[in-house]
Structure formats: C-alpha cells, structure tokens
Amino acid sequence: MGGAWDTWLDGALGALENSMLLRSLRPLVLSEPDGNEDGGDCNQHTLQTFEDLGPWDRAGVEVKTSQVTVDAWLSASTSTGEDIHSLNDSVGGKGAKEEFHKLLLFSGNDYLGLSVHPAVRRAAAEAAVEFGMGPRASPLVCGYTSHHRRLESTLAELKDTEECLLCPTGFSANMAVLTAITSVVPGRNEDKESPVAIFSDALNHASIVDGVRVSQRQSNAEVYIYRHNDMMHLHQLLTNCKRERKVVITDSLFSMDGDFAFMKELSALRKQHDFLWIIDEAHGTLVCGESGGGVAEAFGVQEYVDIHVGTLSKAIGCHGGFIASSRKWKQWIQTRGRSFIFSTALPVPVVAAAHAAIMVAKKEKWRQHKVWALVRQFSEATGLIFTSPIAPILFGDADAALEASRDALFCRKLLAKGFHVPAIRPPTVPVGSSRLRITFSAGHTAADVEALVKALSHWTKTKGPSLNFLPSPVYWFPASLTDSKTLKLLLGNNREVQSKKVRLRPKL
Q1: Nearest to 428 by CA among 208, 206, 280
Q2: Cβ proximity of 353 and 318 under 8 Å
Q3: Contact at 8 Å (CB) between 183 and 16?
C-alpha cells in the first residue's frame, strides 16, 4: 500500500477507535433443528467431484421458452415478461412440445458451469433444510455466521490477501469500497482531510461508475477518466494531479470487450505514482490464473493490488459479492461502506453453495482448461482474435446488431436455430459499438461451438466484424494451452493488426 494511504488509514482507524465507532463482525454458530450444537457443517458429506462433463452440466447451458416469446422476440415486440404464462399454460397439454423452443445459452457468465453442479446443489439444499435462510439481518447485527466467515477465509486464500468481506452483490461491493475510501473521518478536522483523486478506466463496469459518482458527491473527490487501457494517458493524468491520495480502479477482464487491463503496466505505474490500486475481478475469478486467483494472479501482480473486488455470481455460479484486502482495509470498509452496512447478509444456503463451488473448482481443474479450449477452438474456427471466454463481435450499428441476433439478415439464424446470443446496445456499450456478446461455459461442448460457428459463418463472411475493434494482445493462457497453435495464431494476428495500425476501439 502507498505511504500516503497507509498513513491516512492508520489515522482514520485510530480516530474511529477512539470514538468507539469501529464496527465488528461476530460470527454466529447456527444450531440444527434437532438441537445439534456442533455448528451443523452444511458440507459434512464428502465433496462429490467428477473428471468430465455430466448430464447435469447441460442444464447450465440449455433452456427453453415459449414459442410466443420467440415470435415476439423475432418481431422486436417489447415485453414485461407476461408471455411466460403461455409457457406455464402449455405444460401438460396436448400441444406442450409444440409450445417450447429450446435455446443453447452463449450469453451467460457461468463460465465453469458450477451453478448446476451436484455438489453445489447439495450444499445449498442441505443448508436450507438445516438452517433455513439463516439470520435475516445486516452482518453487523446478527446476519454474519460461521458459514460466512468460512467463505471469506476461502476467498482470501484464493486472492492471497489477509482478509475478505462478503457483500450482497458485486455491485454493492464496488459501491462499498469507493464510498468507504473517500469518506470523511468523524471527529477529525475536515480541513485536514486530504481530498482523494480517483482514476477510472473509460470502459469500467457500471457499478464502478456509480460508485465513483457517489464518492465524488460525498467527498468532493477529483475524478479522472482515462482512455481505455491507455497507459500513457493515465501516466499523464497521474503526473499532473497534485492530490496526495490517488486511487486507480479498473476491471481486470472487461465484461463487454473481453480484453484484459494492462496489469503489468499498471503495476509499474503503481510503483512510480504510489496510488491505491483497486481491481474488479468479477469475470476473472476462477477463470484466470493457474489456481483460479484471477487476472492479477495470471499476470503475476497480486502483491501489488491493494483491493480485489469480486462476485459470486459469475464463475462461482451463485450470488453475492466480496472484497478481498488487508485486515485494515476490511475493518475500514465494514465500518464506512454504506452498501455493506445497510444490507441484509447473504442467505446461508447461498454462502454454503458458493463455498462448495470454490472447492469443486479446485478439484475439477479440467473445467477451467475446458473453457480456454473452447476459446481456442472458436478463435481458430473464425480466424478472429479472442483472448478470453468473452468473445464480442462488433457491428458498430445498433440496428445491425439486433438483426444479427434475430433472423432478418441470415435466414432466422441464431435465435431461430436455438442460440441465445442477444445483441448488446447502447447505453450498455458506447454508441457505435453494438455487438453480439458470445460467452463460453465448461458446460458447452466442442460440437456446440462448431454449430455456433456454422450459424455465424454466413454473417461473418458477408458482413464481418467492424475493423475498428480487436481485443488487446494475448498475455496469458493456462499452462495446459500455452503450447497450442492458438497462442501463435493470436499473437501473429495481433502483430499484423498493430503493423497496419488498425484502430483497436471506437473513438469515445
């Protein structure tokens, strides 16, 4: 941690302690209905793991909807979800099969397919039976249990940090971090508070954007938005900023572009400018790094990251958020992070399921390798550069992207053929960068990817992705894939693009 931040945090915590305002977490040990006082370990059975895909894995990528919904979707009719009644009414009827339309999901974030794993299901079910939903209150009241503590310890170990703090969502985790680090210490002379400067990547997630905005309003923090992955621009902004306490916050793996933050360069800038470095590992946790620690681990810079924000709703396959940090930062955030303080704690079954999912991921390493093998397959089959399980195909025009996800331009392609790949349009992405966002899961098979490539082939051959978009260079693949021809292909393509000076992204 930077010297200015270290000094400030020690003083801030001391001021709260002197004022008796530090908040504490006291984990409760829950009793089973039969009066068993041993803590009721919801994972008392041997963790069941497997060496390959099982039939349950398909439940994570195969869904169905009513034909009424599909027809409305294809005609671009708006919906508030009322058409689900058609599906419910058809169940059990003579024409039930005709009313269903099967879809293969290439749009979710369950990268390892853990949301449907038998061990995860069992952990959630057993915890629900034994404890119900758990104490329903804020973690600072009575909502924090030994199960929450166990998951926090597991996540801290995964991120190689001293501590971890669970939050109700990843969104609230970012809000808690940003509002806490810019909050004023009660009882101290506000004139002596050194205002904070926040530097945020232009393509950061909405939760970071909103957290920055709230921080700016509550503490008059100076905010700088640096061009996406433009390290020279960030360096210039940092150099010209006179604020003593600086924060740089970025997604580690960008959710809509599928590219990585320049972690090596950021770590070098941190050494030079002594800022507090916060990364959002929502899409990198369990997917990247040999042990699943995330993008920071994959790039070998974990020791330079001060605060890791993450979610339990992506590769972990459950729900919730977390903040992995030093013990001091956890103490500060649990005392000053309003979205944590004033939210009800995660239900015990969700916490138990998330813990089981992490344990499964550690044992079933093939899931992580499987996802990267699918990325390799898709890249080689399309000849496009994809560097993560998030594979966007840009079309630059909102209408074109919508047509690509329906059937207007290529014979009722994706949706009609059973592929769920919705168009992503502004304001989710910048104007002029609408896209199909394709994501891969360990639940997919090579045949699934082959079928998707075939469904896309007409469109990519006749229209093709916009030349103003290609993901950033490949820096990392799991060790099991580094000898494949994929890395050479992608690196070669990237060098060719760079030599032609192709613009990497739409100008914002």
Answers
A1: 206
A2: yes
A3: no
Mapped onto helix, strand or coil, the DSSP state of residue 29 is coil
b/e sequence 261-276, b meaning 16+ C-beta within 10 Å:
bbbebbbebbeebbbb
pLDDT level of residue 344 (50, 70, 90 thresholds):
very high
One-letter-per-residue 3-state SS of 126-155 = HHHHHHCCCCCCCCCCCCCEHHHHHHHHHH
Q: Report the C-alpha gap between 260 and 231 in whole angstroms.
A: 13
Average pLDDT of span 353-380: 93
Cβ atoms of residues 96 and 90 within 8 Å:
yes
**Residue 50 zone, left/alpha/beta (φ > 0; ψ -120 to 50; rest):** beta
Which two tokens mark 442?
Answer: 């360990």
User: How far is 276 from 258, CA to CA, in rounded Å?
Assistant: 25
Which tokens in the block code for residue 462? Answer: 């006749």
In tens, the pLDDT along 51-73 reads 999 989 999 999 888 877 777 77
Alpha-carbon span 52 to 507, nearest angstrom: 44
Strand spans (E) along 81-216: 100-105, 163-167, 196-201
Alpha-carbon Rg for the chain in angstroms: 24
Q: Which of 202-211, 212-221, 316-325 has the lowest mean pLDDT?
A: 212-221
Residue type, 368: Q
State the Cα–Cα distance between residues 84 and 102, nearest whole angstrom. 14
Q: pTM score, two decimals?
A: 0.86
Residues 6+ apart with CB under 8 A from 206: 171
